[in-house]
Every structure is written in structure tokens, then in C-alpha cells.
Amino acid sequence: MDQDTFARQVTDLQGSLYRIAASYLRCEGDRLDAVAEAIARAWEKRHTLRDERLFRTWITRILIRECVNIQRRQKRSVPVDALPEAASEPEDERIAALREALAQLPQRQRTMTVLHYMEGYDVREVARIMGTTKSAVCAGLSRARTRLRALMGEELE
Amino acid sequence: MKREDWQKVYQPREGALEARVRQTLRTLDTRTDGRTWTMKKTMALALAAVLLLGAAAALAAGLIFSDQVDAKTAARQALAGQYGFTPAMEAFFDCEVNEDSRTVVFTPAADTGAGVEEKLGVYTVTLGKGNQATVSWSHDGETIGEGTQSPVWDTKLLAAAIERKAAGEEWIDIVLDAEQTAVNVTPEEAIAIARRAATEKFGMDDLKVLEDWGAHLYYRGVEKAEKDGKGAKCYQVRFTQGDERGTEYSVSLYANTGEVFECMRMEEEQDEAYDADVSWHAAPGSEQAKALATITPEQAAQLAKDAAAEVYGLSPAQKDSMEWVDDVAPSPYAMAGDTPVIQIWLWLWQGGPSAPFAEGDGVYQVEVNAQTGTIESILYDSTLSSNG
Questions:
Q1: Nearest residue on chain A to B227, judged by CA atoms?
Q2: For chains A and B, what is the number of CB pairs under 8 angstroms?
Q3: Selected residues 81-100 of chain A with any CB under 8 Å from a CB in chain B
Q4: Lower CB count within 10 Å: N or C terminus of chain B?
Q5: Minimal Cα distance from B111: which residue of A?
Q6: Domains of chain B, residue spans
Q7: What string of pLDDT tens digits covers the 388 residues of chain B?
Q8: Which of A11, A23, A22, A26 has its CA nearest to residue A56?
């Protein structure tokens, strides 16, 4: 893959990568670090990508690994609700409520939810990205939906 | 809720993401092209001579290892001496060698089926001159609990867990309290319970159990099972309507109590042919690598066996028992940056397919330089970190 193509694909995916990093990391700085490191590592490892059609899934897996690395390097544990997302302008209460509800989900459920509902990956792709089974993804999404419904008091679909 | 609304949940400060991505893309030019080690001068001269002499001479030069392989070998030895780290444990870690081959970091792999990456910590080895090495573990100084319920696993606990896995236990049983994993519901009972639940919820009276699924026993995530304490083993039963495999319905229930905790209509999945279509392709550059190669895949496979035996201390009998798996990809050739390589997968399972794990068993992935025969990289996966 040449550098121009790589840059174009990465730029198209940057928003998605940030949102997926947000399912792991609480502060914006860490999320940006994770995205940057994932891009750099993907460039270094581009020869391992067997099919450019799988670029999105492939770089997402690299990103998740970077997020986990950052989590482990952080020695201190910060409560989920201690660092609210910075909003520069008034936002929809529903969006804020969804963000708080997502923060209450276990890590894996939150990431599955982000990958599926936010980024549009289907169940098989989510399973491939997270290195788990389709059954586990279906179960995780179902439990996440139930929990989010209870926290937000409404159906989300 | 529309996807656009979902995406509003996580938004960076305006311009921050774009600026960071642009900055990162600008610095790509300063990075290496996929290799993180440098050639030693003496080795570079030796390889230049080998190239001139051609393929036969390349093989006659014997095993030559890249700096990366040497660094990982030295790091592994240092960890073995300090912490009791074994080759079987490598399956639980990703290993990165930094650019000057002086620092080797073993980070828990996030995609093992064991679900224990949180417990393992990060091992770091800094290689000095001669045989000097400084090793550290991110959990140094922390209290290690007794048994696999400990939140932190040193290599002693990991070794004990590996022993149990090798003996046939599943990870969910090893990590959780064994009392939580009882199976009191038979598959037939599970199907009956699931059918009742699906019929009640969806009003169907012609549901048919998928023949290739039955009452599938699986293990829930460790985190969730620990939280609700309901037992880690569950059945999933999938139905379809009548004789047509269209929309599917899935019911999951706890295998110890029969309580149904999920009953849903499954979203339609893509055609299974998609997998075959997108996964079975030769690596990029395989034709180019093949054109540049002076070594055949057969010769590379022999070099790979020799390298695996030397690096991992395998006996001649173990080396002879290794099987070259030559259908992992349509072509073994690939370009690693500017380097043509032949990718060799070796499988060793002493005692036969149904035998328990023995030291040395697993998969060895070796990249052999297709022109010089240099062992560019070698990975060993005992497969013990996976389920099943």
C-alpha cells in the first residue's frame, strides 16, 4: 500500500478510530495518543495486511491493542464518571445521557456497542476485531441494550 | 436512534483529531519500512557475500538470525532466569523489539481466549553489552494472591494455569471458582426451555432448531460471570422458522439453573462466502517476492525447522516431528518492506492430535529471507492461551 492511499484511508477513518478509542480511554489526550500510535504502527506493519479491503478491520484491531497498552501503562484507576466529556456547546440531553449510560457498561460491552451501533460493524466483524465469537458478541450486545434501556428509560433503536 | 446521534457521544475538541492525524501522517516518512532492527556490519558483509554466491552458498552459510530474533532470544533467556518465563507463556504476550534492538517488551495479548490479560502485567527487558540484561515486571512489588483467583498472576501462577489448561480444563473453569461452572441442564432440556421462551416471546409455533448448532454450550465472559455469579457455562439454542433458513432466533440460558437470560431475533449475517472471498488471497507483493527469491519454499521450510529447534531448544526428534503447514495462504511469498520473505508455518503436536500438550507443542511462524536465508522473525504459539 503506498503512502498516499494509506493517508487517505486513515483520514477517512479518523473519526471512527477516535470513537472506538473513546470506548477504552477516558481522556481526549489518551484517545488521540492511541489513534496516533495505531496509525504509526499500522504503517510499520502494512506488509502484514493481506487484503486492502480489510484495512478498516485491521487497523481497528491495532487501535484496540494500543488502547489496552495505554490502559495498562496508567497505574492509577479513575472512576468512570470522574472525567466528563468536554462539551464546548450545549448538547442534546439524550446524547449526554447516552454517554453516561455507556460509561456504566463493562469494557467489552461498551466497545461492542460502539463498534456495532456507532460504527456499523456487523456481528461477525465485531467478533473478528475483538477476537471473540459471534455468540459472545450477540450476547454482549443484547446485555448492553438491556442495560442501556434500563439506564436511559427508553428503547434506543 | 440514528448512527449520527450515536457518533455525537464521543467527539474530540474541534480540530484536535485532524491536527494529530496530520502530524502523525507527516512523520511516517521518518519511520522504518516495517523492520525495527538494523543489520550488524559484519552480518551485512556476510550477507552481501552470500548474495553474490547464490542460493546454494546461501544455504551452506548455515543459520543466520536477524537482530530482532537475537534480541528476542536474549530477552527470553533473561526473563527465564529472573522470572521463570517459559516458551509456553509466549502465547499470552505480544513481543515488540524497539528500533535499536536494545529493548524488548512483552505485553499481554488482548485477543487470547483466556481472558487473563489483566492479570499478567508487562515484562520489559533492556539489553546491554555482552550478556547484560535488565528485566522488570509492571507488577513488581505487588502482592500475589494464592490460586488463579488472584488479580495478579506471576509466572508461577501462569505456569499452574497452563498446566491445568494442558490437562484439558477450560480457561473459564481455571479463572473462576469451579462451583460456578456446573452443568445441570441437559442439551435436550435446554432445547425445550429455549423453544418455550422463543415461542412465548415471538409467537412462533413452527420453530426448528438449527441442525448445525443444536444446544451449543459456551462460556460467558469471565467479567460478567464474576459479577452476577450465575455460572459461566451457558447454552445457546438457535432456531429458524419452518424449513427456510432466513431470520434466526437465539435463546441463551444458564447451564446450571436453566434460567433464560436472553431471547432475541438474530440480525441477518453476511453470506459465508464473504469469508472465503476476502480471506483467501496471497499477501501483497507475493509475486514480486517470488520473482526475487533464490530459495525455494522447501529450502525455507528446512531452515525454519532448524531455526525453531535452535531458538527453542527442541530435540532432533521434535524437529523431525514438525509438520510444515503449507496451505495457510495461497502463496508463502510476501514482501516485508523491501525484503522478499517466505513465510513458513510449522506445527508440532507430539503424541498425535488428541494427545495432551507437551513441552514444545504448538505453532512456529518463521519468516525466512527469500534471497539470503536469514531468519528474519520467529514466533512461537503454544496455543494454550486459546479456548477449545
A1: A106
A2: 165
A3: 85-86, 88, 91-92, 94-95, 98-99
A4: C
A5: A131
A6: 67-175, 180-269, 281-381
A7: 788 888 889 988 888 898 889 888 887 765 544 333 333 333 334 444 444 444 454 455 568 888 889 899 999 999 999 999 999 999 899 899 887 778 999 998 866 667 788 789 999 999 987 668 899 999 999 999 888 888 899 999 999 999 988 887 777 778 776 556 778 999 999 999 999 999 999 887 788 887 666 788 776 666 566 666 676 788 889 888 765 556 778 898 988 889 998 888 865 444 443 344 334 456 668 889 999 999 999 999 999 999 999 999 999 999 999 988 876 667 899 888 888 999 998 888 887 766 788 889 988 889 999 999 999 999 898 877 765 4
A8: A11
Asked if B23 is an interface residue toward chain A (Cβ–Cβ < 8 A), one would say yes
d(CA A33, CA A29): 6
Residues A97 and A63 in one domain: no
8 A C-beta contact, residue B231 and residue B225: yes
Nearest of B144, B176, B158 to residue B109 by alpha carbon: B158
Which residue of chain B comes nearest to A93, CA vs CA?
B9
Nearest Cβ partner of B224 from A86, A106, A131? A106
Provide the CATH number for the domain around residue A141.
1.10.10.10
User: Domain check: are A58 and A22 in the same one?
Assistant: yes
Q: Does the beta carbon of B20 lie under 8 angstroms from any beta carbon of chain A?
A: yes
Residues A35 and A96 in one domain: no
Considering just the CA atoms, what is the radius of gyration of chain B in Å? 25
A39 in contact with B, Cβ within 8 Å: yes
Rounded to 10 deg, the angle between the A134-152 and A93-103 helix axes is 130
**Alpha-carbon gap, residue B385 to B201, rounded angstroms:** 38
**How far is the C-alpha of B342 from the C-alpha of B333, rounded, in Å?**
5
B180-269: in CATH 3.10.450: yes
Q: Which ipTM did the prediction report? A: 0.85
- Chain centre distance of CA A28: 13
> Cα–Cα distances in Å, from B385 out to B7, B69, B203?
34, 22, 42
- Please count the structural domains in chain A: 2
Host domain of residue A63: 1-74
